[in-house]
Design goal:
The chain is mainly beta. The protein has 6 helices and 28 strands.
Length: about 475
């Protein structure tokens, strides 16, 4: 009776949201595509006068189409179909209960005229634009306070044509922070899947203050020297799943954030319950997975599994600084393969970069319970650069079954540590830092996140929201 009631409840919720993640028994996220494929109302962008010649500006067509489809928001939602073609547009707003569908051969092109990217207020957890004081350009695809939004298709493309923005940035010609390709603020129930993202002016995908976010089967590409073209940046968001993505960019492939210094501390919106599975990519300037540096609202319960990074600068990095406050805790990283990576694992406790001079230098971050398990690497420059903060030691950092083959011609010690304390077992080359004890089991296993119960999923504490219903049922 109890299970039957739960299943009935889940079906009702599914009819409303149209997606969920399954975490019962594996770190694999699943969602139903019935709502994606079967919205009761559908229109093509061409019905609103759009022309897919790559020259005609179609911003009004997108705005008018979405204004019309909003009338179906309480009638099961609607689908906006973008057929094959080159659809040039400026920034436009999404609506709730929407599927934005890009057909095979369809490309949404971002305008190269900055006037078609409106300027909006900074995020409250940042207090200013990320690059410049004051306001910021709005993303190409934008939305606030939405529910049940799907951006997907038959591997269509969203191309930001960002090279002009990169030149403006390098030449100091911008008055406002550059725009993202997709930014959703305060959204619940967001799916982005089966698409290619190209040449974003700034970060590619930025869910901020969001809940129940699923990012799957994306290819995200930008030149390796393009500035700050992060792939996916979940920011002050919870219940996020990112999986089966290929990302090559000029910055972090995935960066988990939660606000910047005093603004992030005050806004107090953490990032939590985030899973990253089966990510492959390259970045010659930054990290495969980064946490921070903007983490002042806190980051916790992070699961990273099956990461393959090649010909890159850094594998996994935690970035913070005095003045950040906040915390990073309960992070489990497993099944990582690194090929020709300069720095396999890096902690940076003095990253700097403050929004203004009003931050509290005594606001020290708490970094604890970070576990690396089953990590291998070939042609590694440095195994670990682990720099904490004097008087604010990073603690319970654990390494289990880590084998990193450091380049023979490397002149640096394979591990360098300061103000970091933890445990290691079956690590090669051995961690030679005095602050690491060379054993975990049995006496220290409870200090190492994800190991004490020998079951990462069971110890995850993931939210029992309807989006994670299999987790809920399996506990009954």
């Amino acid at each position: 009776m109890k299970i039957s009631f739960l299943l009935s409840y889940v079906l009702l919720v599914h009819a409303f949201y149209g997606a969920w993640c399954s975490v019962g028994g594996s770190l694999h996220c699943e969602y139903s595509n019935s709502q994606i494929l079967h919205r009761p109302h559908s229109v093509s962008i061409t019905e609103f006068g759009a022309v897919g010649d790559g020259v005609t500006l179609n911003t009004k067509a997108f705005q008018n189409a979405l204004f019309y489809l909003n009338t179906f928001s309480d009638k099961g939602g609607a689908k906006l179909f973008v057929p094959a073609g080159q659809w040039l547009t400026g920034s436009f707003d999404l609506i709730s209960h929407l599927t934005l569908w890009l057909d095979k051969g369809a490309t949404i092109l971002g305008s190269t005229n900055s006037e078609n990217w409106p300027v909006v207020d900074p995020l409250p957890s940042y207090g200013r634009g990320r690059e410049l004081p004051g306001r910021r350009h709005r993303s190409l695809i934008y939305g606030q306070n939405l529910t049940d939004v799907v951006i997907t298709g038959e591997n269509g493309t969203i191309d930001g044509q960002g090279s002009i923005w990169w030149d403006w940035f390098r030449n100091g010609e911008l008055n406002y922070t550059r725009p993202h390709l997709v930014e959703l603020i305060n959204a619940t129930g967001l799916i982005i899947s089966n698409l290619t993202f190209l040449n974003s002016p700034f970060w590619n995908i930025h869910p901020v203050y969001c809940r129940d976010v699923f990012v799957k089967n994306l290819t995200i590409l930008a030149p390796l020297d393009s500035p700050n073209t992060d792939g996916v940046d979940p920011d002050s968001s919870t219940n996020v799943c990112i999986e089966d993505c290929y990302i090559v960019t000029g910055d972090d492939l995935v960066s988990i954030k939660s606000g910047w210094d005093e603004y992030g501390i005050s806004y107090a919106r953490p990032s939590s319950k985030i899973k990253i599975n089966r990510l492959t990519g390259q970045t010659t300037s930054s990290s495969g997975i980064a946490i921070g540096s903007e983490m002042s609202g806190g980051v916790s319960d992070i699961y990273i599994k099956d990461l393959h990074l090649f010909n890159s600068n850094t594998g996994i990095r935690i970035k913070t600084s005095p003045g950040r406050g906040g915390y990073v805790r309960n992070v489990h990283v497993s099944n990582v393969k690194l090929d020709n990576v300069q720095k396999a694992i890096r902690f940076t406790g003095k990253y700097g970069e403050h929004p203004d001079g009003n931050f509290d230098t005594k606001a020290l971050p708490a970094i604890e319970k970070i576990t690396f398990e089953n990590v291998s690497g070939e042609d590694i420059g440095v195994a670990g650069l682990l720099e904490g903060i004097e008087g604010d030691e990073f603690k319970n950092i654990c390494f289990l079954n880590v084998t990193l083959r450091v380049k023979k011609n490397s002149k640096q010690a394979p591990w360098r540590c300061s103000n970091v304390r933890g445990y290691s077992q079956w690590v090669s080359p051995e961690i030679s830092c005095d602050s690491f004890e060379e054993s975990i089991f049995p006496e220290h296993s409870s200090d190492c996140f994800g190991l004490s119960e020998n079951n990462v999923e069971t110890s995850s504490g993931l939210s029992r929201s309807p989006w994670l219903f299999f987790w809920y049922v399996n506990e009954v």
